[in-house]
Design brief:
The complex is a heterodimer.
Chain A lengths: L5 H23 L6 H19 L3 H24 L6 H39 L2 H17 L6 H17 L8 H9 L12 H9 L10 H32 L6 H32 L17 H7 L2 H12 L9 H19 L3 H23 L6 H23 L3 H10 L11 H13 L9 H8 L3 H18 L13
Chain B lengths: L7 H30 L5 H19 L4 H14 L7
Helix pairs in contact in B: 1-2
Classes of the chains: A mainly alpha, B mainly alpha.
């Protein structure tokens, strides 16, 4: 189920009504854990399963199974304490990673590594024909593997839960349903933000009551901003600038290539931050607070800052569960640089199963390492405005690789780079309107994070019905400006 | 997030959401009817059309669809125009 659709609008209205209606009933029949509280938790879980099952019921059941297994591991670790040793956490992590690898990386590992290596080895052994016959028989099986939407996100949430429980930083959820609601909570299920167990499970155990002051102003502003980013900006940039360039880069010249790369740079920001904004807004309306996921990333004046502002929930996850356990910056300079590269390499692979994603991650890791190295040996600091322009353009350049990883691979990457060489070529993309939309997409970063406070503070002063009426007006304008149909969010494929 | 005014805040939020839905449906009903026309033939299409049609008529009568049509015009006039290389 996609956020900007009528189906979701009806679905959310029903969930909102049931959630708060049951909350009121639970409070009327006093008692901290009465039947209405359990029913409300059940309704939230059912809603999440319907939301996910709308796409695939078998995978919704797999999500449910993941919640049962991971909660089982957590109870095992908590029940045995230190006696349990490292076995349960190793098993839990292996199982979660194993499922992720099976669905996401089997085809890549087989076709990108095993098959080409096998051809060479089989050639040396004189069994090339047998190997090719094996590859042909295996291909139909590989083609049957479908990537479950959002598996990378909920697997990382499950991992954070079992690892935090094993470290003693988080207690296991009191009941399975509380953990299942944490893992499957529909606003952030398929594309984040990746919310930590310590943040959301307590809220799932003690559901917000009707005395909770719903921040409708912030929720409304976030949802509408998300819709503007996705439906007006991202979809326009994709359809009119980025997609044509990446589909046939050989047809375009330098100006179009530049526009197309800028377009994808802002499309991916608007698309992904839109999902996060709408998810945070919807969760707020149900009484739950999520951390922010984007904080004006293209205003960053260093690569380190960029990764602190882009997909914050993933960056902090990689830092806490990969970079720091690898030794972080505590084991000497060389090890620190290696840790940065390895973390970003795996971060790149998290985004997609392909060498282009891996290379994208390695290059970002290298930039972080070089920046850290230069920071130690060079005292000169460029002006901030210059550093911002430089960081933005390097990040934009690397997005070419990222986008090529989703379609066409290195051929597309080379094609786009070649397009930059055709300096005198006539522009065929809508440059003028495109520039206006690009500027609007860039400026929308001014609404990220705490920068939004000035707007929400003003909206909060208005009565709820005025907020609702104005939201309907803005929503209608968004629908009018948006192209027909809704393109899926980019991060759904990860 | 606790409200000193107690439970009223949640109900105010619900009222705000109800106003949003009601107005959004009224202002977009003609477009919703058009979308329903494009659905596959069947019960869902018939049900959606019969639900949306009276609201679409009311919306057209009150001219509440002007906002969406205006925005679509802006899109057509400005955003969907290609640059003329001549």
């Amino acid at each position: 189920m996609l956020f900007p659709t009528l189906t979701f609008a009806v679905f959310f209205a029903v969930v909102f009504g049931l959630n708060w209606g049951l909350a009121a009933l639970a409070e009327r029949h006093a008692g901290s854990e009465n039947g209405f509280v359990s029913l409300r938790k059940l309704v939230l879980l059912a809603a999440s399963l319907v939301f996910y099952g709308w796409w695939s019921w078998p995978f919704a059941l797999m999500l449910l199974a993941s919640s049962v297994i991971n909660h089982g591991f957590a109870l095992w670790m908590a029940g045995r304490g230190a006696q349990a040793g490292r076995l349960p956490v190793v098993l839990a992590v292996s199982l979660n990673i194993g499922v992720l690898v099976f669905f996401k990386y089997t085809g890549f590992l087989f076709n990108g590594a095993v098959a080409p290596l096998g051809v060479k080895v089989a050639g040396w052994l004189g069994r090339g024909d047998a190997w090719i016959a094996f590859l042909e028989s295996a291909q139909p099986f590989l083609d049957m593997i479908v990537l479950p939407v959002g598996i990378s996100f909920y697997t990382f949430q499950a991992l954070s839960y079992v690892i935090d429980v094993s470290r003693g930083e988080v207690k296991p959820a009191r009941r399975w349903i509380d953990f299942a609601n944490y893992l499957a909570f529909f606003p952030q299920l398929v594309a984040g933000p990746i919310v930590r167990a310590g943040h959301l499970i307590p809220a799932m155990e003690n559901l917000p009551g009707t005395e909770t002051r719903l921040d409708t102003a912030r929720a409304g502003v976030l949802i509408l901003l998300g819709l503007i980013k996705k439906m007006v900006i991202a979809d326009y940039l994709a359809t009119n600038l980025a997609d044509p360039l990446f589909a046939m880069p050989e047809e375009f010249g330098a100006i179009d290539a530049l526009m197309g790369v800028y377009a994808y740079t802002l499309q991916i920001y608007c698309d992904f931050s839109a999902y996060s904004d709408i998810a945070i807004g919807c969760a707020l309306l149900l009484g739950f607070e999520f951390p922010i996921n984007f904080d004006a990333p293209y205003f960053s004046d260093s690569f380190k800052t960029f990764w602190r502002r882009w997909h914050i929930s993933l960056s902090s996850w990689l830092r806490d569960y990969l970079y720091i356990p690898l030794g972080g910056s505590r084991r000497g300079k060389a090890r620190t640089y290696a840790n940065l590269m390895l973390t970003m390499f795996l971060g790149g692979l998290w985004h997609g199963a392909g060498w282009a994603f891996a290379l994208w991650g390695i290059l970002h890791g290298a930039l972080l390492a070089v920046e850290r190295m230069l920071g130690r040996i060079v005292s000169f600091r460029p002006p901030k405005w210059l550093a911002r322009i430089f960081v933005f353009h390097v990040v934009a350049f690397l997005w070419i690789l990222f986008r090529a990883g989703s379609a066409g691979g290195m051929e597309t990457f080379k094609g786009v780079l070649n397009a930059f060489r055709a300096v005198g070529a006539e522009s065929t993309l809508p440059v003028t309107a495109g520039a206006v939309v690009l500027a609007a997409g860039f400026a929308l970063q001014l609404c990220d994070g705490a920068r939004l406070a000035w707007l929400t503070d003003r909206v909060r002063r208005w009565p709820a019905w005025v907020q609702g009426g104005l939201a309907a007006v803005v929503f209608t304008i968004i629908l009018g400006l948006a192209p027909e149909g809704v393109a899926p969010f980019i991060y759904f494929q990860f | 997030m606790k409200d000193s005014e107690g439970k009223n805040a949640t109900w105010r939020a619900a009222a705000g959401l109800a106003v949003f839905y009601a107005l959004a449906v009224l202002m977009n009903a003609p477009a919703m009817e058009k979308n329903a026309e494009n659905m596959d033939y069947g019960v869902a299409r018939d049900a959606t059309k019969s639900l949306v049609r009276p609201v679409a008529r009311l919306s057209a009568m009150l001219r509440l669809d002007f906002l969406r049509r205006g925005a679509a015009c802006v899109r057509g006039r400005w955003l969907d125009q290609k640059d003329d290389p001549q």
